[in-house]
Backbone:
């Protein structure tokens, strides 16, 4: 049983968007001490934005906490890890319809009484022809990941509504969401990033504010305040594992992978393409690091299945034209 007494202090159960395919479902979250941090308003004041960001990393995860999930008539239990992280992975006894489904996870005290609850959603895609796995930083969101100074300046001085997307990226992703389907059966998006779970709410707000397709986020291990300057820096193995889980969860879906060459996306996506040779339709890499342009092209050339389309692009409109040329987007 956890050392922390949880009858009196305030706690937050953070539940992130989960995902699943028919009967196989998964949802993640954290148990943290204190109230959830959310700005009452968004401002261009850099000092207030710095304070807000810092608060996201002044977290106290609660280890060994017992949490429970109620899914229809099924009840599940698990215990949080050392960083307060929990994961529920289960099979539903009933067929789950496509769409978004509410899920509530409760924190229990030592007497198995509910202390507090958190609400999230499970995303079950329609059986569309395509699914999309996308990186976030420097693929959708202008982040300057390769330049620490610029990256930290943007992070500290901007808020989720003032952060910038790349030109035409919203148009591109909206077109992809409709590729070979319609507005009632949108293609699923999975946003797999090296950004930490600390930034989940901000990323959600950024995507919502800019009109990017709604999807499930798969982020990196939560960090504390003294690790703030290392945000976004992680070994690519964790990201690779997260993409593999998506491939395994949706065996009938064919995927398009979208990333950039500032870090490890090309290596990860080539590994995925060579492992799931019949599941990958195309790979799009934003060329944000000019010194990596030729090495990235050489790496993409090592994909074993030569029928997988690849496109390294400088501007999003090039990716849109390529998608139309291969018949992915029908204009």
Residues:
């Amino acid at each position: 049983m956890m050392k922390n007494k949880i009858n009196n202090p305030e706690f937050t159960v953070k539940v992130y968007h989960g995902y699943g395919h028919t009967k196989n479902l998964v949802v993640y979250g954290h148990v943290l001490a204190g109230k959830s941090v959310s700005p009452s308003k968004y401002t261009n004041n850099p000092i207030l934005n710095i304070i807000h960001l810092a608060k996201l990393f002044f977290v106290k995860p609660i280890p060994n906490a017992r949490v429970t999930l109620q899914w229809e008539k099924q009840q599940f239990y698990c215990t949080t890890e050392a960083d307060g992280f929990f994961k529920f992975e289960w099979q539903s006894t009933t067929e789950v319809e496509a769409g978004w489904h509410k899920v509530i996870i409760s924190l229990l005290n030592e007497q198995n009484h509910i202390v507090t609850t958190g609400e999230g959603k499970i995303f079950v895609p329609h059986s569309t022809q395509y699914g999309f796995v996308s990186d976030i930083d420097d693929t959708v969101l202008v982040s300057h990941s390769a330049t620490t100074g610029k990256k930290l300046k943007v992070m500290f001085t901007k808020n989720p509504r003032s952060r910038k997307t790349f030109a035409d990226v919203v148009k591109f992703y909206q077109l992809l969401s409709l590729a070979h389907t319609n507005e009632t059966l949108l293609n699923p998006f999975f946003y797999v990033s090296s950004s930490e779970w600390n930034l989940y709410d901000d990323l959600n707000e950024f995507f919502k504010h800019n009109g990017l397709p709604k999807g499930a986020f798969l982020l990196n291990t939560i960090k504390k305040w003294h690790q703030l300057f290392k945000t976004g820096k992680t070994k690519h193995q964790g990201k690779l594992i997260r993409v593999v889980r998506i491939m395994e969860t949706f065996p009938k879906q064919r995927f398009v992978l979208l990333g950039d060459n500032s870090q490890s996306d090309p290596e990860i996506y080539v590994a995925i393409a060579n492992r799931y040779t019949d599941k990958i339709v195309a790979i799009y890499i934003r060329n944000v690091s000019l010194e990596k342009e030729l090495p990235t092209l050489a790496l993409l050339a090592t994909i074993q299945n030569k029928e997988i389309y690849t496109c390294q692009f400088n501007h999003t409109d090039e990716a849109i034209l390529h998608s139309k040329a291969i018949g992915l987007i029908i204009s």
Notes: The longest strand covers residues 114-124. The radius of gyration is 20 Å. The chain is about 25% helix and 30% strand. The chain has a mean pLDDT of 89.
